[in-house]
Design goal:
The protein is of the alpha+beta class. The chain has 2 domains: about 120 residues, q2cbj1_9rhob like domain (Jelly Rolls), CATH 2.60.120.620; about 45 residues, no CATH class. The strands form 2 sheets. A 4-stranded antiparallel sheet has the order 1-7-2-5, with no helix packed on it. Strands 4-3-6 form a 3-stranded antiparallel sheet, with no helix packed on it. It is flat and about 55 Å long. The model has no long low-confidence stretch (mean pLDDT about 90).
Length: about 160
Amino acid sequence: MSAALEVGPGARKQILHREEDPFLYFPLPRPNLIVASMWSITDFREGNGATLLVPGSHKWDKDRTAKEKEVCSAEMPAGSVLYWLGGTLHGAGANTSSDWRYGIILTYSLGWLRQEKNQFLDVPPEVAKKLPSKLAQLIGYRTYDSLGFSINPEYLLEQDS
């Protein structure tokens, strides 16, 4: 998944959640399914809504909730990147400043999982053909063994349309 995020002045704290929450068929704690990353476009400060993380929460069962003292604010300068396991509780902090906070989240899931946002459907073959091969593969123009196979997506790149 990829998304550009902004947290404006006055924004409330986001509810803590896990990137792996769509995969409910695995009980908590889940095996590691996703690695998430947050790329800071602007400085991330506690006051402008820096990402909140709960270290170790990827190992918790479903009944365990975070205590306020367990939540960390990931402050970092623009251009930094933060990585966490997809089962880790996280969310945007409240923005009590007058500044906007911008970031980009990129998540990487195991090859046999369906992605949350299907970029394969958003990028038609005629556009994907113009992309570097590795990028086309990353957005879904390749199969993982034969899982989810209905048409070989690489075949769509080979066709003259």
